[in-house]
Amino acid sequence: MLTTNNQYLKTTKMKRLDSIPTNKIERVSKLVTTGVKIGGNYLKYYGQKIVNPETAKETLHENNATDIYDSLKELKGSALKVAQMLSMEKNLLPQSYVEKFSLSQFSVPPLSGPLVTKTFRKYFGKEPHELFDTFNPESINAASIGQVHKATKDGKDLAVKIQYPGVRESIGTDIAMVKPIAVRMFNLQGTSDEYFQEIEGKLMEETDYTLELEQSEAVRVECAKLDNLRFPKYYPELSCEKIITMDWMQGKHLSEWCKEEHTQEERNKVGQALYDFYMYQIHGLHKFHADPHPGNFLVDDNANLIAIDFGCMKALPTDFYTPYYKIIQPETLANEALFKELLYELQVLRPDGAPSEEEYFFGLFLELLNVFVDPYRYERFNFGNPAFSNAIAGLSEKFANDKVLRKMNGNRGSKHFIYVNRTFFGLYSLLFDIGAEVDIYGFRRYID
User: Fold this and answer.
1) Share of the chain above pLDDT 90, in %
2) 58, 62, 78, 169: which could join 174 in a potential S-S bond, CB 3.0 to 4.6 Å?
3) Pick the residue with more confidence: 47 or 281?
4) Could you say which of 282, 314, 346 is where a domain stops?
């Protein structure tokens, strides 16, 4: 893995963390302190609103985003993972939050050298310099669950990912803290624990580096046939439940690469590799990388995509995949009876629902999917076209302000939608940033 010199300098100048709050009292206290700061921001806002109403709201968003992010980056773990996920929701959050939370993808305070050494001694019984020929104690990349160090061994450049202490143990606490906030923000009253259990289960998997090692190697082998896509090699003998060692991959983070000047041919090449990677996994393997943020992808000097970090993988059971695949076909949207049947099968419509609810959700999902499946109406589709991105943004804003929707309680849709929707909208967002035009059905050659 490689970050740019600017990112490296930002990371190395950051305050080192000698400890991370892990118990419930410490983590709740941190959030309470943040709440006090936010309360102060609102007091300032009401004063500024009288003097300068044009900029007061923007200043409020900036101050709140800064205070919330500063709190989450010290908590790390699943609390910071929430910020990482929210940074992808460009259509739902004010820009100040998107910009600040996007730092959680690869730029947060790293662990101190002594804490890193302590982790190695605990799991290997040795210090880093005893395992590697060289080991840089300064982290190159620090994110929500772990940080990366550069090392060498037997002439190979290696990336060593170290999990923050206490991350796994704090997941239950973090979910308990986030749940009431999410219930209020997204009107989830009446929602069963099934959705929250799905998220908690995935977060637990992400903190199991032994599982991640297995998944990473499986993806590397299964997706080796895809063009313009590269993966690091993994080293089990230098890995354990809290540490993963892999090849050091030369490249730039995708978000950085997108901001540079590149030809349309290069953008299409990178975008096609990304699109094929996801479509092959979803439709060929029925198990996919469910964390599509730019910190998990690099681009090399030849415009090849490098995929890293396979801690979050989502398997699609047949009883979900089959109706889901059918409902995202454009012809299904023109068949009212089939569309309604599939909505019931996917638990969007429920037998105990009132006729008015059935009519409402039928119309809502028909409108949503008509935008969502638009790329599948073409052989080639330009994801960089602002009209497509604006259509998604328009729907997001409409649903966010829909008073009828906010009054609807209870589960709507299978739990599998959580990571499937996150992945598709994350993929669309990345393809928009890349500005890629892709062959929509070209991935089928890898399956057929």
Assistant:
1) 47
2) 78
3) 281
4) 314
